Amino acid sequence: MSHHRGARRTGATRVTLLTEGTYPHSHGGVSVWCDQLVQGMPDVEFDVVAVTGTGREPVVWDLPAHVSGVRSVPMWGAPPEGSLPRGRARRQLTTAYEQFLTALLDPRAEDGFAPALYALARAASDDALSPFLRSDQAITVLTGLWNRPGLAVREAGPTLHDALTATALLEHALRPLAAPPPETGVAHAVSGGVAALPGLAALERHGVPLLLTEHGVYLRERYLGYRTAPYRWPVKAVVLGFFRLLAGETYRRAALITPGNRYNRLWEEEGGADPEAIRTVYNGVDPAAFPAAGPEPLTPTLSWAGRVDPIKDLETLIRAFALVRAELPDARLRLFGGTPRGGEGYRERCEALAAQLGHADAVTFEGRVDDIKDAYAAGNVVMLSSISEGFPFTLIEAMSCGRATVSTDVGGVREAVGDTGLVVAPRDPAAMAAAALRLLADAPRRRAMGEAARLRVIEQFTLRQTIDTFRAIYLELPHLTPEKKTVPAPAPLPAATVTGTGSLAL
């Protein structure tokens, strides 16, 4: 679905934002960041290609006139229109798809991923890829491949049901290749993964430079999500193989990568990015929009703000609060933020946990708040309990408001906080509770930390710095000579093991 907004201005720098599940169809930190860029650069012409769920999601942000158009690319819902290719075209697509799958499952064949991906992109532009992936032939290719001797996935005994499931997941994940890619300007993917697919197609077809900004590490979050996904290992091997090789191709082909923190940079370099093509750009806030909060509440209160989502790990926060309340019976936990569509079950699980622990009367889910500053002001201490983050807006906003914070040691949290807040290990209720109790018991320390936190934001993390940096990048990239990266790919990340913060083995 496309929304066009007036005549295109001539002479303006053009940027196509590539998003997934965020701006302009939902709220959240990445959407706030996109809106900041758009609103802060009225001299730049923006388009948006937004990967969405069903395509029926409304635009929830007020778009200024210099956003020329929004194209929604639904990953779910009704399949795209098109027809199965015939004859030579069908044989060529079958060969490309077999090469694509082989790269996902055989480490010796990974060099074939990129040419196969771009062959699939050409088929998608002809409306042929989705019908092919929904055909019996696509299933036959996969079942024949992963039963070859020597492939590790064969040892897991893949079934026909596994093949149907894996093929369906790939068909949905590859749908963004059918979106018309930008032909001029800069393609700015605001996450890795499927949002970058139209940008890679634009680079391959039209030489449009690709700019990649990762707020969280997309590949790491896919590993975390698939850890508990209800799929057998053969399905995970295919899908995670796709995300891993897609991350590597995006890192290698991007003209510039602008992670929001140094932690992301390590993943990007490990995934194949040229270190010279990486430039850290921190998120920023307007200190005037987040002034020092007023007096603290008289009742000892922990506040939290964000979207209600498993990656925010509210269960650990609720368990930590139970330990806090054992010491401070009057304590309260106030949770501010909306629940994304489809996330109602997680919120209900968190509410049930609070009730099970005997604290339903003191834990309140208060939904979206008209002014997010009120969420930070509501607490003596602002909490962040996530298991994955980039450079979280809620943290630097709370810091700008002069509130002391307790945060989990993920992503760029330590870079944001410095010594102006307490940082604890993720998924550790006891450590989180102990840190919160230390601050609740020491008002002078809270006050000193809050003042230092606001000063840190003013000195290092202002919105003006962020916008000026990206404006300069947007002006710079179209004038670079387009060329394919020649950086050799390092040893790939293991398909089933993730190292670093939140390590796991699937």
UniProtKB/TrEMBL annotation:
Transmembrane segments: none annotated. It comes from the Bacteria. GO terms for molecular function: glycosyltransferase activity. Residues 485-506 are annotated as: Disordered. InterPro entries: DUF3492 (IPR022622), PelF-like (IPR047691). Keywords: Transferase. This is D-inositol 3-phosphate glycosyltransferase. It comes from Streptomyces griseoviridis.
